[in-house]
Specification:
The chain has about 425 residues and is α+β, with helices and mostly antiparallel strands. It folds into 2 domains: about 230 residues, no CATH class; about 150 residues, Oxidoreductase, molybdopterin-binding domain (Sulfite Oxidase, Chain A, domain 2), CATH 3.90.420.10. It is about 40% helix and about 10% strand. Strand 1 and strand 2 form a beta hairpin. Helix 1 runs antiparallel to helix 5 and helix 2 packs across helix 6. The chain starts with about 35 loop residues before the first helix and ends with a strand. About 35% of the residues are buried. InterPro entries: Mopterin_OxRdtase_euk, OxRdtase_Mopterin-bd_dom, OxRdtase_Mopterin-bd_sf. Keywords: Membrane, Transmembrane, Transmembrane helix.
C-alpha cells in the first residue's frame, strides 16, 4: 500500500507558517540564491562610509549658508539644538564650497545603486511575521522603518533638487535637513548594532545561514561577486555621467546634471548661469547708467554710488569659481571690482568691517536678500564685481554689479545688487 502524500503545511503548524508560499511574508517566497549575510555586509560597509561622508558634507553645506549669524539666510526655522555645530564658514581655500558640494551631490547620486542593492538584499525582513516578537524586536523594526523610509526620502528629494525639478510640498531646505537627522540617527543606531555581525560575516569563508538565505533557492545565474560588479558598474556609470558638471572639458559627459552641458556661450561671460535676468524680473531700464545707483548704509550714514563712480574707486581682482547647492560649479573666473571691506569703510567701518545685508533688484526666486559674515566681508578677495574676464558683466551674470566671495555658495554671491547695509544682521 502506497504512502499517502504528505501535505506541505501541517494542520498543527502555527498560523504564521500557514501563509501561502506566494505571499512575501513566507520565507520560501524569496528565492534568490544571492541573498545572504556576506553580500548584505559588503553593501552595508560601503554605505557606512559613503553615507557618513554624505551627512558630514551636508551639514557643512548647511553651515555655509550662514543660518546662525544671518537669519535672512536661514531656510530652516526652529532648528533648535540641531544647529549646535554651526560655525563661521571660512573663505579659504577659495574652492572649499565647490569641493564640499561637488562631493555631496556626486557621491549621493553614485551611491543610489548601492542603496537599492542593500534594500533588495534585506527586503525579506521587511515582510517577516510576526511584526514584533518582543518590545526590543518592535523597536528594531521601527528603527528599520525609519532607516528605509528616511534613506529613500533623502535620496529622492536630493535627486529632484539637483535636477531643478523639486515637486515635494514645502521647502527643500527644512525637509532635507530634518530628514537627514532622522535618517542618520536611525542609520547610526543600526550600524552600531550590526557592525560586529557584519565584521564576522566578512571574515567567514563560508556563508552562514540566516533569515536572508532562501530555504528554497532558485538556480543561480550570477555569483555574488558578479552581483557586486554589476552594482559597482551602475555606480561608476552614474559617477561618470554626473561628476563632469564641475570641470571644463568634461561638462558634456554630465548627462544627468542640469548644468552639465557645454559652456552656455562664448566670450568672457560664457560660463554657467543658474538664474537669468529674465527669470529674476530684471528690467533693462532700471540697470542703465542713469537709473541704477548702489545704496550703501552703515555707521556714518548712507552713500549712493553710480556704476561710473564705483569704477573710479580702487579696483581689485580675484580668480574665484561659482559653486551651487545643486553640485555644479564653474572653473575660476577672473573678477574685478571694489572690495567689500572698502565699501564698508565708506560708511564708517575702516578697521572692523561687520556683517552685511545685500539686497538685489530681482523680483523672482529665492535669496533676493542675503547676509554675509564679517570674515567674508573682510577677505580681500571679496568683491562687488563690475567686470568678469576683462569685460563688463552680462545682464545674466549680474550687471551692473554683483557680489563674489571666496568659498561661498552661489546663492550668496548676489547678482543685480541694489543695496548693501553694513552692521549687525
Amino acid at each position: 500500500m502506497r504512502d499517502e502524500p504528505r501535505p506541505l503545511i501541517s494542520s498543527r503548524t502555527s498560523p504564521t507558517s500557514r501563509i501561502s508560499l506566494t505571499s512575501p511574508t513566507s520565507p520560501r517566497f524569496w528565492r534568490s540564491p544571492l541573498r545572504g549575510p556576506w553580500l548584505t555586509s559588503v553593501l552595508g560597509v560601503v554605505l557606512l562610509v559613503g553615507i557618513t561622508v554624505l551627512f558630514v558634507t551636508g551639514l557643512f553645506s548647511y553651515a555655509a549658508y550662514n543660518p546662525d549669524l544671518a537669519p535672512v539666510n536661514d531656510k530652516t526655522p526652529g532648528k533648535g539644538i540641531l544647529g549646535f555645530y554651526l560655525f563661521a564658514w571660512p573663505t579659504r581655500p577659495h574652492w572649499l564650497y565647490r569641493l564640499n558640494q561637488g562631493v555631496h551631490v556626486t557621491l549621493g547620486i553614485t551611491l543610489i545603486p548601492v542603496l537599492l542593492a542593500k534594500l533588495w538584499s534585506v527586503v525579506p525582513r521587511l515582510f517577516a511575521l510576526p511584526p514584533a516578537r518582543s518590545l526590543a524586536h518592535a523597536l528594531e523594526r521601527l528603527s528599520l522603518l525609519l532607516l528605509v523610509g528616511g534613506g529613500l526620502f533623502e535620496f529622492v528629494t536630493g535627486v529632484f533638487n539637483v535636477q531643478l525639478n523639486y515637486v515635494f510640498p514645502g521647502s527643500f531646505y527644512p525637509l532635507h535637513f530634518y530628514g537627514a537627522w532622522v535618517f542618520f540617527a536611525a542609520f547610526a543606531a543600526h550600524a552600531l548594532l550590526k557592525m560586529p555581525t557584519a565584521a564576522r560575516n566578512l571574515r567567514q569563508l563560508r556563508e552562514e545561514r540566516n533569515d536572508l538565505v532562501s530555504p528554497n533557492p532558485a538556480e543561480p545565474t550570477v555569483s555574488r561577486r558578479g552581483a557586486l560588479l554589476f552594482v559597482g558598474g551602475g555606480s561608476l556609470l552614474l559617477f561618470a555621467t554626473t561628476a563632469g558638471r564641475s570641470f571644463d572639458g568634461l561638462r558634456r559627459t554630465a548627462l544627468l546634471a542640469p548644468h552639465g552641458g557645454a559652456e552656455p556661450g562664448g566670450g568672457p561671460n560664457g560660463f554657467q548661469i543658474n538664474k537669468r535676468a529674465a527669470y529674476a524680473g530684471i528690467r533693462a531700464a532700471e540697470t542703465g547708467e542713469d537709473a541704477w545707483r548702489l545704496v550703501v548704509t552703515g555707521r556714518t550714514g548712507t552713500v549712493r554710488l553710480s556704476r561710473a563712480r564705483l569704477a573710479e574707486l580702487p579696483l581689485h581682482s580675484a580668480a574665484l569659481p561659482i559653486a551651487c547647492v545643486e553640485g555644479w560649479s564653474t572653473s575660476d573666473q577672473w573678477w574685478r571690482g571694489v572690495r567689500l571691506r572698502d565699501l564698508a569703510a565708506l560708511v564708517g567701518y575702516e578697521d572692523d568691517p561687520p556683517d552685511v545685508l545685500v539686497e538685489s533688484l530681482q523680483r523672482h526666486g529665492a535669496f533676493r536678500r542675503a547676509g554675509l559674515r564679517a570674515n567674508q566681508v573682510a577677505d580681500p578677495r571679496s568683491l562687488l564685481a563690475l567686470y568678469v574676464n576683462g569685460e563688463d558683466l552680462s545682464p545674466d551674470h549680474g550687471y551692473p554689479a554683483r557680489v563674489i566671495v571666496p568659498a561661498a555658495p552661489g546663492v550668496l554671491n548676489t547678482k543685480w545688487v541694489a543695496r548693501m547695509t553694513f552692521g549687525d544682521l
